[in-house]
Amino acid sequence: MLKYMLFRNSKIQMVPADVFTNYSSITQLYLNNSQISTIQPSAFNGLSHLTELHLENNCLAKVTVGVYNSLSKLLILNLAYNYIETIEEYAFLGNSELQILFLDNNRITSVFPYTFRDSALLHLDLSYNAIANNASNFDLAVFPKSITHLQLSSIGVKSFKGLQDLSQLVHLDLSNNSLSTIELLSSARLSYLNLSFNSVSSLNSFSFKDMQSLDYLYLQNNLISDIPIGCFKNLDSLAVLDISTNNIYQLRVGVFEGLDLLKSLNISNNKISYIDETVFHPLDHLTELNISNNEILQINTESLLNHLNSLRFIALHNNPWECKTLANILVTLKKLKIVVQKGPEQYNTHFKGIKCETYIYAPTTSSSPAQDIPNFQNFFQEDFFNTNFYKFFQTPFNETLMQMAKSVQKEYVGELSQLNNIQLNSKVDLQKIFDNYTNFNKEVFSKLLEALNKRENGFEIIRETNIMLIIIIVLVVIGVITLYILKHFDVFKKSSNRIRTANHTTNSAEIEI
C-alpha cells in the first residue's frame, strides 16, 4: 500500500483538480522544490489519510479557500519559501488536526482574525514576512489559543499586544524586529524567548515578571546600556542568558540575583572595562562564561572562581590584556582544568590566539631641588652660551646692548642685593634707585628697537620668529626687578610708619608723665 509520493525538484507548474483521487492511502506528499504556481480547488480530494504536505520552494502567490479544506487528517503543512501575499480568511477551515504550519519567507502582509479558526495549531512560523507593515501594534490574539511555538522573526513589528491570551505559549521568537520596549505581561508557561536584534534600549524590574518557567532568554544585539538590579529576580528556571552585543558599561552586584540555575552567560561585545567578581556570586551552577570583546584589563581569577564553582568553559579573547596578566590568568585556569576558548589572533603577540600587549615601563626616579640646582648652574655656565638668545646679544650690532646688560648686572643687581641691609630712614636712596632704573628702562628699549631694525651686509640681526620671545623675556626681567623694588618700598613705608608710631608713643608717654 502506497504511503508517500515524491515529486521533488520537478518542473510541475500546476496541480490539477482530483489528480490524487485514487491514492487515498498516501500519508506523505512531497511537491517541494518545483515550479508550482497554481493549485486548483479540489486538487487534493481523495487524500483522506494525508498527514504531511510539503509545498515549500515553489511559486505560489496565495492560499485560497477550497485547496486544503478537505485534508481533515493533515498534521503538517509546509508553504515556506513561496511568493504568498494573501491568505484567504477561511483557507484552513476544516483542517482541525493541523498542528504545524510553515509560512515563513513569503510576502504575507496581513493575517485575518478567522484565518486559523477552529484549528488545533501548535507550531506556527510566520518569520520573514511583512505582516506588521499594516499594523502599528500587532495583535497576537489572531493566533489560536492552542499555539505553543510561535516564530515571528523579521516581520517588522514595533510593538505587540495579546500575549496574555496565548496561555499555552512555550516558545516565542520575536528576533530581528523593531521592538524598543518589552511588555510581555504574564506568560507563565513560556520557556524560550528570543528578543535579539531589536532596538530595546532599557529594561525594568517588570520586564520579565511572572516567567518562572523561562529557560532561554536571548537579548543580544540590542541597545541596552544598563541592567537594573532585580530585572531577572523572577526567572527561577533560567539556564541560558545572552546579553551580548549591547552598550552595557557595568554589571552591578546583585544584577544576577535569582538566577541560581543559570548555566550559560554571554556578556561579550559590550563596553565593560571592570568586573567585580562578586557580581557572579549567585551563579553556583554556571558552566559557561563569555566575556570576550569587551574592554577588560584585569580580573581576579581566584576570586572569580570562588563564586563560579561549576565553571568549565570561558572565553576571554579580544580584551586589552597585558601579556603578563593574561599569562597568569591562563595558568590558573589550566590548573583547574577550565577550557579557554581559543582566540582568533594568529599574527600578533598572543596566548592561545588571545591577543595581548607587552608594555615596557621606564624606571621612575625622584629628585630633590638640591639635585636640580647643579643642573641649572651647568646650563647657565655652558649650554646657555649656545642659545640663539645669547648669540643675539653677541652680534657686532648689539655690543652696546650687551654692555648695558652687564652694567645692569653689576650696578642694579648689586643694589638690589643690598636692599635687605639698607637703612630706609629716608626716601633719598630709594628715589635714586627708581630714577636710575627708569633711565635704564628707556635705554634698554631704545637700544633693543634699534638693534631689531638694524641690518648690515644682508645679515639679519635676529630672526623674526624670535623677536617676540626676546621682548617677552626682557619684559619679564624688568617686571621682576620692579616687583622687587616695590616690595622693599612697601617695607620702607612700613618702617617709616613704625618710626612715626614710636615717636608718637614716646611723646604721649612723656605727656602722661
Automatic annotation (TrEMBL):
Signal peptide: none annotated. This is Uncharacterized protein. It holds the Pfam family LRR_8. Keywords: Leucine-rich repeat, Membrane, Repeat, Signal, Transmembrane, Transmembrane helix. It is a single-pass type I membrane protein. It comes from Pyrocoelia pectoralis. PROSITE patterns: LRR. The chain crosses the membrane at residues 467-486. Its main location: membrane. It is found in: Membrane. GO terms for biological process: axonogenesis; positive regulation of synapse assembly. GO terms for cellular component: membrane.
